[in-house]
Design brief:
Blueprint: E1 17-22, H1 26-37, E2 42-48, H2 51-61, E3 65-69, H3 77-85, E4 97-102, H4 107-116, E5 120-123, H5 128-139, H6 147-155, H7 177-187, H8 192-199, H9 203-216, H10 222-231
Parallel strand pairs: 1-2, 1-3, 3-4, 4-5
Helix pairs in contact: 2-3, 3-4, 7-9, 7-10, 8-9
Length: 240
């Protein structure tokens, strides 16, 4: 399962998404691997039981997407994510996308991994079709933010967030009023098409706004935008 120098392509000459599975439970890895086996355009190129093994496997197998558990022996998923995506991890365009798997009692770990640079998080009981869509989405540069999971995660951090009456944080001062509005809707988990419908804009215009938001705030993707929106108090966690 070692990497090759050429781009592997599947049906219709589409690039294949190379996936590394990281989980300390063999049954979980086997189950996910079996589910991905017959998925179009996805290839499992390696497996790892610990964060340390994940770092070695990433360097060896060059996956596009790492499906990462959060609680593992030796090195947990949060620290592994930091090391894979940190300043000393080489060129940014060579980094894999990291998709975190979490359970209801590990939300703090998932939140920390998102801040460390992961492109999204999913619950371990996610339906196979959603997992496949998420893998493809993060490989394409999108982020996976489930609104219900995001709300539950960030409810826990409500006491640490600024009050709703606080002035616009300096971090957001570079944004126009429309961009702040778009950022707020992104933080609620809306897609570009849903934001376009809400604001009566074209989807292309929304995409342009999102791109400018990420550029102005120096954010990597929509997941980081969601975290920032909550941290700055632009969006408040709602009732569960």
């Amino acid at each position: 399962m070692s990497a090759t120098s050429s781009v592997v392509r599947g049906p219709y000459n589409q690039p294949v998404t190379r996936v590394l599975l990281v989980d300390d439970h063999e049954l979980v890895r086997q189950g996910v691997a079996a589910m991905l086996l017959n998925a179009d355009g996805i290839e499992v190129v390696g497996e790892a039981r610990t964060g340390r093994e994940a770092i070695e496997a990433t360097r060896r197998d060059l996956p596009d997407v790492v499906l990462m558990d959060v609680r593992m022996p030796v090195l947990d998923g949060v620290e592994t994510t930091r090391r894979l995506l940190g300043d000393g991890a080489g060129p940014t365009d060579a980094h894999p996308k990291i998709l975190i798997l979490t359970t209801f009692d590990l939300d703090e770990y998932a939140f920390a991994a998102i801040k460390a640079g992961a492109s999204g998080f999913l619950l371990k009981d996610v339906p196979p079709t959603e997992l496949l869509s998420a893998i493809r989405a993060v490989h394409c540069g999108d982020a996976v933010v489930a609104p219900s999971t995001t709300r539950r995660l960030l409810d826990r951090f409500a006491p640490m967030l600024p009050s709703s009456g606080a002035p616009t944080p300096p971090t957001l001062s570079a944004l126009t009023e429309r961009e702040r509005e778009v950022l707020g809707l992104v933080a609620q988990g809306l897609s570009n098409s849903e934001i376009a419908a809400r604001l009566v804009l074209s989807e292309a215009t929304v995409k342009t706004h999102v791109g400018r938001i990420l550029m102005k705030l120096e954010l990597r993707d929509r997941v980081q935008a969601v975290v920032l929106a909550y941290e700055t108090g632009l969006v408040r966690p709602g009732p569960r």
